């Protein structure tokens, strides 16, 4: 056999082929809010037992008491009885008093239902299993926050018949109700997002609850304290400059009151006899920060409040998501 002739029984040498690396798995796009397991679990836990029934009963009882007191006070302020021209004012005053009571209760209740959102998982040692699932950190935070806001929506819907009583009296429109309720819910969303961010940074529910309630208290009266400090400082130097209205741009009472339509007249006379009526008169008397042409001005405080709230809420969700992105060594 010719040595150059290849032997058919000899196997051909293998040719090295370049093996392509395996394809990288696609990053999960996230879970829709409808299928969020955290939201589903939180909603089931919140409606179990008699706690939610007692909670709603207390909520509606307090609002009914505010409605009755506002009606009795408005009728008594009318002297011998309300005239035809006073009916609309009484209806609007009752509406604003009930909305004011709802805002106070929201500022008091939202920290209670969101302060333990993440710290509760840490204390039950269930946060790490959540972090090990296919859910993104943002899905966990959105589920926790959505559960608290769903409970807030339940309270608002339950209070609609009480607002309907004042609507039957008159003095305001459906649009006024929508604007007031929208600002109320938005305030609860911002405060809830901040409380969830605080809960993601702390390890104990007690500490988180105390800090969240302190923040809600500062959120409610911090602007008034800043205005008082400004007034004392300027008067100490012999000046009489009014505090800037921009200090009220982060106050929920000023924002809700400013979102409602104004009445003509001065302080507490033509304006409604309610906390929101007083806030509108206060805003209009502080100078030209937001108002150069009287009550019919351009951008209002509630617009600045909304813009600031959106930024704070987005930042809080981001901070909370980063806090639960990976299990910490101390939580393993």
Report on this structure:
There is one protein chain. With 332 residues, the protein is mostly helical. It has one domain (36-323). It has 12 helices and no strands. The longest helix is centred in the middle third of the chain and has 32 residues, at 205-236.
Radius of gyration: 29 Å
**Strand count, sense and closure of the main sheet?**
none
Quickly give the structural class.
Answer: mainly alpha
Helicity level: 55-70%
Portion in beta strands: under 5%
The total count of strands amounts to 0
Distance between the termini: 73 Å
Molecular shape: globular
Helix-strand pattern, N to C? Answer: HHHHHHHHHHHH
Low-confidence stretches: 21-28, 265-269, 288-298
- On the 0-100 scale, what is the average pLDDT? 76
The total of helices stands at 12
Total count of domains:
1
List keywords for this structure.
12 helices; mainly alpha; 332 residues; globular; 0% strand
Quick description:
With 332 residues, this protein is mainly α. The chain is 64% helix and 0% strand.
Topology at a glance:
Layout: H1 37-47, H2 51-77, H3 84-114, H4 119-123, H5 127-131, H6 137-158, H7 160-169, H8 174-201, H9 205-236, H10 252-259, H11 275-284, H12 301-323
Helix pairs in contact: 1-6, 2-3, 3-6, 3-7, 3-8, 3-9, 6-8, 6-12, 8-9, 8-10, 8-12, 10-11, 10-12
């Amino acid at each position: 056999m010719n040595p150059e002739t290849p032997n058919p029984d000899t196997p051909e040498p293998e040719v090295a082929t370049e093996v392509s690396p395996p394809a990288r798995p696609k990053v999960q796009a996230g879970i829709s809010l409808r299928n969020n397991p955290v939201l589903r679990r939180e909603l089931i836990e919140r409606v179990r037992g008699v706690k939610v029934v007692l909670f709603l009963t207390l909520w509606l009882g307090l609002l009914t008491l505010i409605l009755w007191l506002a009606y009795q006070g408005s009728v008594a302020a009318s002297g011998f009885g309300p005239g035809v021209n006073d009916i609309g004012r009484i209806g609007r005053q009752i509406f604003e008093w009930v909305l004011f009571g709802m805002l106070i209760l929201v500022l008091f209740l939202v920290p209670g239902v969101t302060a333990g959102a993440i710290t509760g998982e840490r204390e039950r040692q269930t946060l790490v299993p959540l972090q090990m699932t296919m859910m993104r950190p943002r899905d966990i935070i959105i589920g926790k926050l959505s559960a608290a806001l769903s409970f807030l929506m339940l309270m608002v819907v339950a209070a609609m018949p009480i607002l309907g009583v004042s609507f039957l009296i008159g003095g305001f429109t459906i649009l006024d109700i929508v604007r007031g309720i929208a600002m109320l819910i938005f305030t609860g969303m911002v405060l809830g997002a901040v409380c969830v961010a605080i809960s993601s940074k702390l390890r104990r529910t007690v500490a988180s609850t105390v800090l969240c309630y302190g923040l809600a208290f500062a959120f409610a009266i911090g602007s008034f304290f800043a205005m008082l400090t400004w007034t004392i400082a300027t008067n100490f130097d012999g000046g009489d400059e009014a505090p800037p209205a921009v200090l009220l741009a982060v106050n929920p009472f000023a924002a809700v009151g400013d979102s409602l339509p104004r009445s003509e007249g001065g302080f507490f006379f033509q304006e409604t006899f309610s906390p929101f009526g007083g806030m509108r008169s206060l805003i209009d008397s502080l100078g030209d920060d937001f108002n150069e042409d009287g009550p019919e001005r351009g951008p209002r405080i509630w617009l600045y409040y909304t813009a600031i709230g959106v930024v704070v809420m987005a930042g809080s969700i981001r901070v909370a998501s980063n806090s639960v992105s990976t299990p910490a060594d101390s939580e393993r």
